[in-house]
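Good morning N.,

You mentioned wanting to compare the apo and holo forms, so I went ahead and generated the holo version with 1,3-dihydroxyacetonephosphate. This is what I fed in:
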Amino acid sequence: MIIANWKANGSLAANISWHKKLTQILPGNNFSDIGIASSNIHFIQIKKIFEKSNLKVGLQDIDFNGGARTGSVSASMASDAGCNFSLLGHSERRYLFNEDNTLIRTKIQAAISNRIKPILCIGESEECLEEKETRDFLKSQLIGALSGVELNKHAVIAYEPIWAIGSGNTPAPKDINLIHEFIKDVVQSTSANNIEPKVLYGGSVSHKNAEAFFDEKSIDGALVGGASLKASSFADIIKIYRKVKRK
Ligand code: 13P
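and this is what came out, ligand included:
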């Protein structure tokens, strides 16, 4: 699966042009391998413009509860509006909005009980990488967010090293593959029902480096930020994904 994380980008007019361009480059309506995590305000528009396709439309975050929580979108409201998935625990939510593993676990549980697929984002900082503590750190994020959680068989984790986001620097594809294998093992032994998740890679994915990532067995797809904002570069990444993974 290839997911666009638009972050706080987009406008009503730009979204229409993006859809037009994408569907010119990728004809047909079979978009089951594509997701868009739009902003909350554009979610309904994106649902509507892609209603004839099976593209998955999701959010970048959801709240675990509703009611007197000014500014929030609850999991049940998101589900009612047709939200297929939600990113949870993105590093920008963690460091800009002080989200911790306990809160993220509560959101994962709320997503699951509202039939929204949670996409748990994890990733180490540059300091952590330099101290060679990546695996311990990722394990603590996984255990903190998933222990006791009953995942369903479509569970997804996104591995996004913080230092790779928006920087143009990425780990070597072989190293990402090893980390993804590690994540699959940890999740299998941490979740309540021993599910092996799909693991997406995120962090400076572009049409130039995508093939090298998708060639790796345990890189199951990508979570794309900057390169998803331009429909043509996002479509190129999807074409590469389909070519490599359907071989
Ligand atoms: P970039 O692709 O811009 O590095 O962003 C990655 C990301 O944060 C996706 O969630």
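Residues 5, 90, 160, 165-166, 202-205, 223-227 surround 1,3-dihydroxyacetonephosphate (CB under 6 Å).

Happy to go through it together on a call whenever suits you.

Best,
F.
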